[in-house]
Structures are given as C-alpha cells and as structure tokens.
Amino acid sequence: MLEVFVPQTPEPTMSRPLPGVFDQALASAVRAPSPHNTQPWRFAVGPEAIEVWLDRERVLAVADPHGREARLACGAAAFTCRSACGPTAWPRSCGCCPIRPSPTSSR
pTM for the whole thing? Predict the structure, then answer.
C-alpha cells in the first residue's frame, strides 16, 4: 500500500494589508522613463486623485534647458500611473492642467 504524505500548511497570514490601487499605481509610475533617470516629477495624492507635477529642481539645465524632456517624462509617469490602475479603477479620467499653481508655490 502506498501512503501519501500531505504536509499541513498553515493558513496564510498578512503582516500588512494589501496595497491599494493608488499605492500600486504610484509604485509603477516612479519607474517611468526619464532623461538620465532624473525622475523630474512629484506626486500629489488626494482621496480620489493622483496629480503629477513637474519638479523644476530636477530638470537638467544643460541637457534640457527648456524642460521639454522633463515634461515628456511627466507625461510618461502619468500614463504609467493611469495604465497601472487598470480599466475599472481610479482614475476614471486624465487631464492636463498647466496653468494651476503647483502645490509648493507660495500662493
């Protein structure tokens, strides 16, 4: 007679909660391509929105004097963030708001 040993596996436990949709989206967005891996963006996370802002301190003045590549990198980060959310999760829409003051402005 053949005996089969099946070890008892403990119930899986989580030491921390599963990351939320925003956490997963931000983890993906920080891996977006950028010139010389400068990552010239900042994220402002609210209860129902993730905003991607250009961090002008990280723009390479010599290689990118007008900040064009940095703005393209911010677009890549926003696209990656939106793609990581999936078709049924937040955010349901994406848009650009270039005329609003940044969260770090003194206004």
Answer: 0.69
